[in-house]
From TrEMBL:
<dbReference type="InterPro" id="IPR011333">
    <property type="entry name" value="SKP1/BTB/POZ_sf"/>
</dbReference>
<dbReference type="InterPro" id="IPR044631">
    <property type="entry name" value="ETO1-like"/>
</dbReference>
<feature type="domain" description="BTB">
    <location>
        <begin position="222"/>
        <end position="322"/>
    </location>
</feature>
<feature type="coiled-coil region">
    <location>
        <begin position="797"/>
        <end position="824"/>
    </location>
</feature>
<comment type="pathway">
    <text>Protein modification; protein ubiquitination.</text>
</comment>
<dbReference type="InterPro" id="IPR000210">
    <property type="entry name" value="BTB/POZ_dom"/>
</dbReference>
<protein>
    <recommendedName>
        <fullName>BTB domain-containing protein</fullName>
    </recommendedName>
</protein>
<dbReference type="InterPro" id="IPR011990">
    <property type="entry name" value="TPR-like_helical_dom_sf"/>
</dbReference>
<dbReference type="GO" id="GO:0010105">
    <property type="term" value="P:negative regulation of ethylene-activated signaling pathway"/>
</dbReference>
<keyword id="KW-0175">Coiled coil</keyword>
<dbReference type="InterPro" id="IPR019734">
    <property type="entry name" value="TPR_rpt"/>
</dbReference>
<dbReference type="Pfam" id="PF00651">
    <property type="entry name" value="BTB"/>
</dbReference>
Amino acid sequence: MQNNLFTTIRSLKFIEGCKATQVYALNSCPSSGDRPSGVGEKILNHLHDHRRSKPTSHFHPSVTAEILLPYGLPSAELIEPQIDPYLKYVDFVETLADLYRRFRACPPLQKSHFYLEQCSVFRALGDPKLTRKSLRSARQHALDVHSKVVLSAWIRYERREDELIGITSLDCCGSNMECPKATLIAGYDPDSIYDHCCCNRMPKNVEASAEDEECSTSEEDWDMSFCVGREEIRCNRNCIASLSRPFRTMLYGSFIESRSETINFTLNGISAAAMKAAELYSRTRRLDTFDPTVLLELLSMANRFCCEDMKSSCDTYLASLVYDLETAVLLIEYGLEEHAYLLVAACLQVFLRELPSSLHNPNVIRLLCHSESRERLAAVGHASFALYSFLSQTAMEEDMKSNISVMLLERLGECATASWEKQLACHQLGCVMFERKEYSDAQDWFEASAEAGHIYSLVGVARAMYKRGHKYKAYKLMNSLISDYTPVGWMYQERSLYASGQEKSMDLRTASNLDPTLLYPYKYRAVSMFEENNIEGAINEMDKIIGFKVTSDCLELRAWLYIASEDYGNALRDVRALLTLDHNYMMFHGKMHGDHLVELLRLNVQEWSQADCWMQLYDRWSCVDDIGSLAVVHQMLANDPGKSLLRFRQSLLLLRLNCQKAAMRSLRLARNCSISENERLVYEGWILYDTGHHEEALAKAEESITVQRSFEAFFLKAYALADSSLDPASSLPVIHILEEALRCPSDGLRKGQALNNLGSIYVDCHKLDLAADCYTSALNIKHTRAHQGLARVYHLKNQRKAAYDEMTKLIEKARNNASAYEKRSEYCDREEAKSDLNMATQLDPLRTYPYRYRAAVLMDDHKEEEAIAELSKAIAFKPDFQLLHLRAAFHDSLGGIASTIRDCEAALCLDPNHAETLALYEKANELAKQPQATLALLSLS
């Protein structure tokens, strides 16, 4: 019972959108003098009355559709799908299974490279959590300093900490995973990676000065000297000889110097200061009193005279002096010249942790992008596929068509050795060249990737052929691809580009049936309907895809259609939501900035006051209209761009829409706009939590509470505690924290979320009456999702009809109600459940429960093949862990050992520690060995 609590807590944020919202609309914090005062329903009713009592004005559009559409109407020729710039396999299940098999056989010291490959494969699945998890595992198993530097910077980049005001590139989050000093320590120690780092601890016993050390040698110990110009540096012969074999040979071998008390070093290019430093180092082994210029000369001297210990000490100490981009640019040249491994690593670390801004520095470009530079880095041990994979990904995100992207991808190809590395480097170069409209080069790179084994690159080959005027060749290539392999949705989508009429429509229908998440079929059908003057049908077609997969290009097309139909209010809503996803978006295929279109549309739409906006936000949030809520928040931020609370609200909506990259940006902006320390700490905690750093997030929440008790700090603490508590069996601490949150000032939206969460925990603890009270209180302040919790309470009380009716209320109120249909199916008979789940799949084909339920029903009816086909249909476009596990169990029940093993391996690649799947996998492997043992006995007899 209590184990479910922590599953519930972890899932609430994404299913229910229940992070602490931070919009102070109805109640105010004591420190917020500019926020509306007053409490609860009186203010709510007053605002409703105010809005109802406002006289309605007859509003006349002042901007015509012709002005709003200077670049014409949407056209089918301009919505061509993009070629995905990552590894994308024909059979993802077999690819995942192969990864897991190789993982089991992978030696510990090679695991880091394996996890990097896994990360590249996971990117095609579109789940940032999986890719971050692989990156963290790669860092955990990194062996050398170079890999640690690259992977730590990459993990940090995923949080885009460069956008956080006041945080420098070498700031540490507190653990060895990303600590800039821990990365410069060589060695394999995967168990310590999550430990707290000691970069801020002062070294002990450093009080002794160089002068004290120097006094340990008396004049009687000086038995020789070096002359540099007119200066004489007195030395101890044995100490100098200990620096290296060349010095020992010179001072004790059969040379004139071995019999001389004074040695002239003037012509060796070493200054007196450097020689003094070498003498002092020979006795004390310390460098902390020297000027950096002396250390650089000492490093050069160490190289010339093979003084390995002195070189290592200089290298280490100089690396510790690298603290910003300017210093790194200066010192890396010395490091490369003198082959100083750690110094180059420290400089490279700054470059990587300053991404993407460092790629705008010409010195950094010169040091990283050119072929000769890669060779110089390779000579020092700092050129790798991981390095250039990280750099090229960053460059492509900044500007895919840039020369920098091309150069870095060329370097990536030069570092590629494994087959998957060659596939990725060549494919991405093909994508960049295609975007640059260099179609001949693009075709060559795509062909190289396909030859290395990446079948999806044939899409690029066909597209490049098509652009070069060879449409029939492109069609034939896609036709042969469909014939040679098990067809998947993107194959038919691609072939449709080279077909026309009924054949094109059939291919697009097949593409949508095989993979309903593909965008192009919906967009093409919408444009085709629009061209046939079926505007309502066109908009409905876009509604289908936007209902479960929100992307900038789909919102743009729907807004375009609304403008053409002169529905400017909905058009403005979509453009505002679009700009929330991508604030720099260029409309009409890159010809008009979205902000400019907003200004034009505003002239045709009745403006809301800030009070109206709050009520609109309240209404849209209550009816689960996330797109509408985003648009309202965007308008509010236009009036008050520094409102961190609104930025946070924005991040919640984006997370609910599965737009995680945009959500993280909003969260970073919320942090930057914070006007108090406790707010800043909370937002930093959510950033850490959302990127998997739960213990660090908990520490931020507790620190915030010590500054000021606040709703959002307690809410963060509840989430973080559930994930990092040493005693996950107890729910009492989380309940207590949520109760503390509810005692703090909050608006109705936030309070509704907190009550809903608390109700869920009470249900898990079987305190049903308390749970019902929480849900009822949440519904009283229009937190619509509480219907689902209350239905669960009724169900547990054996009041199934009441549960069904409660979910029906949610379906009627909610704009996005696929989850409501799914949940209602639990409270009705089989036929009604099947109908509800079919509706859920129609509204959101990405939800996996309906497929699992239908498959289970088919298995119960002894329709085994149909049950497996139901799961396979979803797995083809969404290789989900639960789907794979269930299909493996079905195969096992039918005696399909090979299929069971394959599906278990694919599932374990996604979650290697799942106990039930591991047990099923071991069982299947044991069964697989039995026939071999029987054959062996027969052969012996």
